[in-house]
Amino acid sequence: MEFYTLAALEEQAHGNSLLQWGATAVLLFAMLVLAWQFSRHRFDTKYRELGIILFLCVLFLIGSKLDDYTQAIDSLDASSHMVGFVQKVSEKEGFDPDSVLVNARRLRPGMLMKYRDTMYEVQFDKDFAAYQLLPVKFLPDDVKVVDKKEAR
């Protein structure tokens, strides 16, 4: 079972797909070259057709990146709620924030929180305005700690 440190939660959702951005840039450059070729050879239709195909590819990649962007914003919002929660619990309970581990990247009822050698189940009210930490016994020994270097 994976547990995330505060640093890993803070770093989450900052990764971008460099490959898609690079492909979009290359296709835009190719479109510029084709536009220049089309302006030189107006009666040769192969440049126009290639330009239309490249334009549709760029449009598809931009749509894909826009979808990735909205998902990243949602994920960033959810992880910022988790970061705020971990910081607030650490302050209220007197925990060291760097020693708190959670098993989820988003707030959810029943998630587990580990502080040093003690495991807690976190219960929330229906609007996540109040929480309760219940000590629990954790059976699996295969706890994997995900730190900020591994969070991507």
Q: Describe it for me?
A:
- The chain has 152 residues and is α+β, with helices and mostly antiparallel strands.
- Helix content is 51%, strand content 18%.
- The protein contains 3 helices and 6 strands.
- Strand 3 and strand 4 form a beta hairpin.
- Helix 2 runs antiparallel to helix 3.
- The longest helix has 49 residues.
- It is rod-shaped and about 75 Å long.
- The relative contact order is 0.19.
- The mean pLDDT is 79.
Topology:
Elements: E1 2-4, H1 6-11, H2 18-40, H3 45-93, E2 100-102, E3 111-115, E4 118-124, E5 131-136, E6 144-146
Parallel strand pairs: 1-6
Antiparallel strand pairs: 2-3, 3-4, 4-5
Say what oligomer this is: single chain
Strand element count: 6
Q: Give the neighbour order of strands across the main sheet.
A: 2-3-4-5
Helix content: 40-55%
The biggest beta sheet, please? 4 strands, antiparallel
Radius of gyration: 24 Å
SSE series: EHHHEEEEE
Number of helical elements:
3
Distance separating the two termini: 17 Å
Strand-residue fraction?
Answer: 15-25%
User: pLDDT under 50 segments (min length 5)?
Assistant: none
The whole-number mean of residue pLDDT values reads 79
Shape: rod-shaped
Helix/sheet category: alpha+beta
In short:
With 152 residues, this protein is an alpha+beta fold. The chain is built from three helices and six strands.
Keywords:
alpha+beta, single chain, 18% strand, rod-shaped, two-stranded parallel sheet, 6 strands, 51% helix
